[in-house]
Design a protein that fits this description.
The complex is a heterodimer of chains A (224) and B (246).
Chain A (H helix, E strand, L loop, with lengths): L5 H12 L2 H27 L5 H14 L2 H15 L8 H27 L2 H9 L4 H31 L11 H12 L2 H33 L3
Chain B lengths: L4 E10 L2 E11 L4 E5 L6 H8 L7 E6 L2 E4 L5 H9 L1 E4 L11 H12 L4 H14 L15 H13 L5 E5 L7 H16 L4 E4 L3 H7 L2 E6 L2 E6 L1 H6 L4 H10 L1
Parallel strand pairs in B: 3-8, 3-9, 6-7, 7-8
Antiparallel strand pairs in B: 1-2, 1-4, 4-5, 9-10
Classes of the chains: A mainly alpha (224), B alpha/beta (246).
Chain lengths: 224, 246
């Protein structure tokens, strides 16, 4: 057994930290896009929009039923063979799109549950005063559903941040990719991957604190 | 006198079960009609159809210049009908994410396009009228059942509807809150607001209504002034029902 090369680890920290903005950037963009997509998917399902409902059900089933890594490979390495236009997509974009689709499927299900959790009589009350479907969703149902769904969605965001490490398999040099490159040069795999693990861990812990604060805050606003 | 609200041949089925079987009813301007009858005879469904919360299968609803035929009702007609009929729910159904004041202004700003300021001013008038002038900023979860139902009534009043529909407005209330809600409905009735009330409070119906409608099996069995229905009912079913509840 050899001792950990802590000096090397300290040298690595700023290098890996340099990739935090890319990791967070990919996660934030994918999260924002996934939220919008998930809300649309959830609404299609809740309103049982003909045809679209079935398509969305298949979409959700596929993206929840297959591994994220397989989806990313299918999209980045597989699909361009069918659609040559996709060849020009870079790894970062492909990863963000893949993460978006994957997480939107999960998030759609929790948003759907939260929407269905809003008392049916409030839908009727909104209809009774003449609101359109869009108005009642925007003004009454979604604000309440998002409060209910927020903690779960936050968990998905944390999961999403960690999942950006898979972008490394599409040739993207993000935190994980950078660690891999450094380790390949120094052969100090343990040190490199420990550093990257700890940085992920700290990022997630910081977010968890924010999450707990947010839950306490939202819980207070409308206790029922 | 001409009908303000004219309901003709209104029919509603749930599967093979005919819940409303050709209801004809004419309400004169300012008339207060109470619907009584056994549970499950379509009283609430009738109210819900008038607000299109349940879509009737056949029949016609006419409110002034708006005439909606169940067979080919358009979206615009349905929205217009809803704006002109205020609905008070048994379980209040307040918007949980809105304060009492916002529950009242919501229809004015979102549906009728009023400015926030104008709607808030109107809401303050209504809050005073429902006796909750000091609770405008409270959320429903912080209010008693009686207060919530008064906000529910205020929300319906805010629409300035041609017709107010009350669907068993006191049935979900603890006994201690029934009085204040009935008092409020009484004060609205005094303002000659046309209203249709489904209620199990016979004493209240007798005192507030110009006309009592007795329903059974999805049909109107008998109707007339309270003194006649309660004092001298003609149909056996009415008599049997009044014996049971009286």
């Amino acid at each position: 057994m050899r001792p950990l090369d802590t000096a090397y680890m300290w040298d690595l920290v700023p290098i890996i930290l340099g990739y935090v903005p890319l990791t967070l950037g990919m996660a934030l963009v994918a999260m924002a896009a996934a939220l919008v997509l998930a809300a649309v998917l959830a609404i299609v399902r809740v309103l049982r929009v003909p045809v679209a409902d079935s398509l969305v059900a298949v979409f959700i089933s596929f993206f929840r039923g297959t591994p994220l890594l397989v989806q990313l490979f299918l999209f980045y390495y597989g699909l361009p063979q069918l659609l040559p236009a996709l060849t020009s997509i870079d790894g970062i974009t492909a990863a963000v799109i893949g993460l978006t689709l994957h997480f939107s499927a999960y998030m759609a299900e929790s948003i759907r549950g939260a929407i269905l959790g809003v008392d049916r009589s409030q839908w009727e009350a909104a209809q009774s005063i003449g609101m359109t479907q869009g108005q009642l969703l925007r003004r009454i149902v979604l604000p309440q559903a998002s409060r209910v769904a927020a903690p779960t969605l936050m968990n998905y965001f944390i999961d999403l941040i960690k999942s950006t490490s898979l972008a490394f398999t599409l040739g993207v040099t993000e935190m994980m990719g950078a660690a891999q490159k450094e380790a390949a040069g120094s052969f100090l795999y343990l040190e490199a991957f420990l550093v990257v693990a700890v940085i992920y861990w700290i990022m997630v812990e910081v977010l968890s604190v924010g999450q707990r604060w947010m839950e306490g805050h939202l819980g207070k606003a409308v206790a029922r | 006198m001409k009908c303000e609200i004219d309901i003709a041949g209104l029919t509603k089925r749930f599967g093979t079960n005919t819940v409303l079987d050709g209801i004809d009813l004419c309400l004169k301007p300012g008339e207060r009609v109470a619907i009584i009858g056994p549970s499950g005879t379509g009283k609430s469904t009738l109210l819900r159809c008038l607000n299109w919360l349940d879509a009737p299968d056949a029949g016609r609803i006419t409110l002034g210049d708006l005439s909606v035929d169940a067979a080919h009702a358009t979206r615009a007609q349905i929205l217009a009908l809803r704006r002109r009929t205020g609905f008070v729910f048994q379980n209040y159904a307040l918007f949980a994410n809105k304060t009492a004041r916002q529950n009242i202004t919501e229809g004015l700003t979102t549906v009728r396009g009023w400015s926030q300021a104008k709607a808030a001013a109107r809401a303050d008038e209504i809050l005073a009228q429902i006796g909750l002038a000091d609770r405008g900023d409270s959320y429903p979860s912080a209010m008693s059942g009686g207060q919530q139902q008064r906000v529910g009534i205020g929300r319906a009043m805010a629409l300035d509807a041609d017709l107010l529909l009350f669907d068993e407005p006191t049935s979900a209330l603890d006994p201690e809150w029934v009085g204040e809600v009935l008092d409020l409905i009484r004060s609205i009735a005094d303002g000659r607001q046309t209203m249709l009330i489904v209620t199990h409070e016979m004493q209240f119906a007798r005192e507030i209504a110009d006309r009592i409608v007795f329903m059974d099996g999805g049909r109107i069995v008998e109707q007339g002034p309270p003194a006649q229905i309660f004092g001298d009912p003609q149909d056996d079913r009415t008599r049997a029902f009044l014996r049971r509840v009286g």
